[in-house]
Structures are given as C-alpha cells and as structure tokens.
Amino acid sequence: MIPQLEEHGRTIEGYLGVATASVTPALASAHLGASYGAIVESVTSGSPAVRAGLRASRRTVTLADGVSQMKVGGDIIVAFDGRPVRSGAALEQQITHEPPGTRVTLGILRGSSHLSVPVTLGTRPESLSASG
To answer: How far is CA 29 from CA 4, 32, 48, 95, 106, in A?
Structure first.
C-alpha cells in the first residue's frame, strides 16, 4: 500500500462496476433462490461488469414487512473466485483487495441457473476510491 501511495498518491484497487445490496433473510423470503450473496442493483456503463454480461435488477418488490421495497430480478453474486460472498460489503472488500487486471470467476445465480462468469477487474475510479 505504501509504494502505491508514494507512486500514485493513492491506493490502486480492483473495480467491477456494480452497485449491490446484501441478500438478507427478508429478501431471501422473496423467493430469490439464494440465502446469501450480493444482488446486482445496477451496472455501470463501460465497466468490467458490463463486459462480463452481468445483469442488474429489473423490478421492485415489497418485502414481508409490507413497507420495505427492494429491487430484484438481477444477478446474485454468491461467490468470488470460489469464496462465498456473504454480503454486498463482503463483495466490495474482495474486489478492492485484488489489483486491477486480475481475472476472477464470479459465481452467479441468474433466475434458477448457477453460472460461472469470468471477469477481468478494472481500476477503481479515483472518484470512488476510499483512499482518495
């Protein structure tokens, strides 16, 4: 990390280009087909996620509490290079700990299909970087 800060003035992190929400018990009760993972809510134009063919949520459902709403219908990322993805925050951490250019395989639940999707991570835009 220190060499990156000295050379670039910031840390260089991997980037996928998705906004996600964690699969919670309330969401799992909406018949998502997964009890854990990160639901892809949106995909950034021109991002590695677009190039990999990831799909964003398409519809909004009301959860069991009758009040809360959530976007569903997109891909659910359940694994990152063979490691389970327990939440959106966990996925973000896994992505940012990999250097740009790293090729990883995402375990995806799309409807009732389980897919393995290869993707090459990009460089996290400076405007999104927590370190600057």
So the answer is: 44, 7, 30, 27, 24
